Amino acid sequence: MSASPATTTAPLGLRGRAEDLASPLPPLLAEAEQLAQTVLMGEHGRRRAGAGSNFWQYRAAQPYDTARAIDWRRSGRADQAFVQEKEWQIAQSVALWVDDGASMGFASTPKLPPKSDRARLIALAIAVVLTRGGERVGLADARLPPRRGRGQLSRLAQLLSQDTAEDHGAPEAKGLAPQSRAVLVSDFLGPVEPVETMLTAAADRGVRGALLQVLDPAEEAFPYDGRTIFESMSGALRHETLKAGDLRDRYLQRLAERRDRLADLARATGWQFSTHRTSDSAASALLWLYAALERR
C-alpha cells in the first residue's frame, strides 16, 4: 500500500521548518562564545568560600526538578513536593530578559546590525561568561529555569532568537529567584511602566542586576529633515511630517528624559544602567555588563 502525500511530505516540511528555525543558532552561539573571550575567564568574582552548603529556603518542586533533588522528609509533611535550595544556588543564578519586540529590529543603515541582533549577542555572550564561571543562567520570564552547560546555552540561543509582533516587549519577574541577579537588554523606548513594575518586584526579592539600553546611532542623533514618514517596525504607528527637523529638539529632550528616568529607577532599586550604541564595539558593552554584575 502506497503512502498518502500527507504522510510523506509532512515530516519533510516539518524538518525544513525546524532547520530554518535552528539555522541562526550555531552562528549566534559561536559569535557569542568568541565575544565572551574578551572577558577574563578565571575564578568567578561572586564565588564565596563557605557559602556552598548553607541552607537558603524550601520551594515547591517544579516539573524540571529531578526526584533526586526533592527533599522527601520536608515533602512528607505536606501535600506537595519541596526542593531544598542552597545559598550558592541562589547567589549564582542570573536571569536574562532580551526585548523581543519589533522595534528591536531597527537598523538605520545596512552597515549596522539591527538592535535585536546586538542585544541577543551581548546577552548570550554574558551567559557564556557566567556559565564558564560556574553560574546558572536562565530567563527572567521562567520559560527556562537557570542551569549550566552547553545544552542550556543552546536553549538560550533558541529562545532569545524568537520575535513578537508587538512593537515592544515587556519584562517579567516570574523567573527571578530571591537574592539572585538579572540582566535586562532593550531599547527601552516603549512604555516604561512594565520595567518599573519588574524592577520593583525584583528589589522586593533582593534581586540586583543591570539594565542595558541598546540604541541605533540614528535614534540618538535624529538626523532627519524635511518631508519624512516615521513608521513603527510593526506598522501599527505612522506619522508623516514636512519638517522633521523641527521635531529634533523635542525628540532629543524626551529621549534624555527617558534615559534619566531609567537611571533614577536603577539607582533606586540598586541596579546599574548604561546605554550601548550598535555602532560601538559589542565587547565594550559585554565588559560593562560583566563589571555591573560584580557590584554588590
Structure, explained:
The chain has 296 residues and is an alpha/beta fold. The protein is built from ten helices and nine strands. The chain has helices spanning 5-22, 25-36, 72-75, 87-91, 115-132, 150-160, 193-204, 217-221, 248-269, 282-294; strands at 55-60, 82-86, 93-98, 136-139, 181-186, 208-215, 228-231, 238-241, 272-277. The protein has a five-stranded parallel beta sheet with strand order 4-3-5-6-9, with helices on both faces. The protein has a two-stranded antiparallel sheet with strand order 1-2. It has a two-stranded antiparallel ribbon with strand order 7-8. Helix 2 crosses helix 5 (115-132), helix 5 (115-132) runs antiparallel to helix 6 and helix 5 (115-132) packs across helix 10. The N and C termini lie far apart (69 Å). The model is unreliable at 1-9, 40-53 and 87-91 (pLDDT under 50). Residues 57-259 form the DUF58 domain.
Task: Average the pLDDT over all residues and give the rounded result.
Answer: 80
Return the structural class.
alpha/beta
CA gyration radius, whole angstroms = 22 Å
Strand content: 15-25%
Overall form: elongated
The number of helical runs is 10
**Would you count the extended β strands for me?**
9
Biggest sheet strand line-up: 4-3-5-6-9
Named CATH topology of the largest domain: Rossmann fold
Summarize the main sheet.
5 strands, parallel
**For the terminal residues, how far apart are their CA atoms?**
69 Å
The CATH architecture term of the largest domain is: 3-Layer(aba) Sandwich
Uncertain spans: 1-9, 40-53, 87-91
Instruction: Work out the helicity level.
Output: 40-55%
